[in-house]
Structures are given as C-alpha cells and as structure tokens.
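HUMAN:
Sorry, I am quite new to this. Are you able to go through these amino acid letters and fold codes? The numbers rather puzzle me.
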Amino acid sequence: MSLRAQFAILTLLSVTGVSAALQAKPKWEHVTSKDGITVTMRDVPGRGFPTFRGVATINAYIFDVVAVISDIKRHTEWMEQCTDARLLKQKNEFVYVVYSRTNAPWPVSDRDAVYYSEAKVNPKRYEVKIHFRAVKSPLMGKVGGVVRMEKLRGYFHLRALGLDRTRIDYQVDADPAGMLPKWLAKLATKRLPLHTIRSLRKQVTRTRGWYHKRIKRWKAMYEPKEIKELSRAAAAARSSL
C-alpha cells in the first residue's frame, strides 16, 4: 500500500473517531422551569451525579450580583444547603481560595470542597465570568465524617442586559464521591440550581447598598462608556422628579 493511501486511511479514521466522540457526548436535558429559572442537566458517563445548569435573569445591576457572589462568608445565607463558607486565601478582590461545606440529608454524609475562584471582567461584552475549581490545599484539612469532593468545577456567567437587569448562567460539574443514592442525586440536580438562583435574587435585593464603595470602584474601572452615559441620564431623570 502506498504512503498516500495509508495517509488517507489514517485521516479518515481520525475524522470518524472525532465525529463519533462528538455524537456520543450527552445532550442537555430539561429538568424544570420555575420563577423564570430554567434548569437543565447532562449525564456524565461513569458517574451517577450529572452536570447541572441554571439560567435566569436577576433584576439588578451586574456588579450588585458580583458583589454578593464575592462575599464568601455570606454564601451560607443564599447558596442551597451551604452550611459553612470560609475565605482561606485572597490574592485580590477577584481571586481567592475558598472552603465550602454542603449539607446532605441523613444518612448521607455532608460534602465539602476547597476551591480556587477567579472572576474575569469583559468590559466590551459587559459581562463577568466567575470560574471555580477544586484544588488540593494545606489551608484546610479534611473534616471527620465529611466527604471531600476533589472533582468540582463550574462558573457563574453574568451578562448585563441593561442598567438593572442581569442574565445569569450557573453551571456545576461535580463528582460528590462516596455513595450517593439515585433519588438524592436527582433531587439535588433540580434543587441546587433552582434554589441557589432564587435565593441569590433575594440576597441581591436584601444587601443592596452594602457594597457601595466596591461597586463604585468596579464601575469606574470596567463600565463601558455608553453604559456610563445611560447611568448619568437615568440619574438626571430621577433628580428631576
């Protein structure tokens, strides 16, 4: 067989393999839609806990939402089943290492994780993406009776839809490790994104004004020129009433 023929066969096999891999990737499945929040899930081969995703809008300025998510110690007030949240290390106001513990119903053990989180601002698209992933760290040892999740990643993707409206795309891909009943995995897939986003909305409303100095600084650094002009126009309109 000529070299040209061998190369053609190898190329065909390579393309066919990539195509099959793409086709085999599980699709997103609709789980529920409530209160303007759409929850979807995608199975992960070899794992009982799927990747889940929640998409919604929040009637708030984008940096109001970022400020709430960045306030680690208050995650217990709005993140579904979060019973402990600690800031272990902070490089700056957008990069930090966090410890988080999630409550699980008896007789299932609680889960916890140490994760690295970094927020990136894209002023041109007027969006903020907060990525997080599990890391091994000496800053927080394992807790007795709690299962440490070493495979965890996800993000909060926020995009401004106006001065007081933000689209949120919240996704988590985690391996809870240990034994997890199917009924609990199914329930968690629905509850975690739905209740987390629902509570985040309430927390943003409840804490409005708490992070004024921080938000003012972010606006000066990242807010696009056209948004600044809209903000000034809106402020002028309010003062004339």
User: Anything to note?
Assistant: The chain is about 35% helix and 35% strand. Residues 182-206 form the longest helix (25 residues). Confidence is low (pLDDT under 50) at residues 5-22.
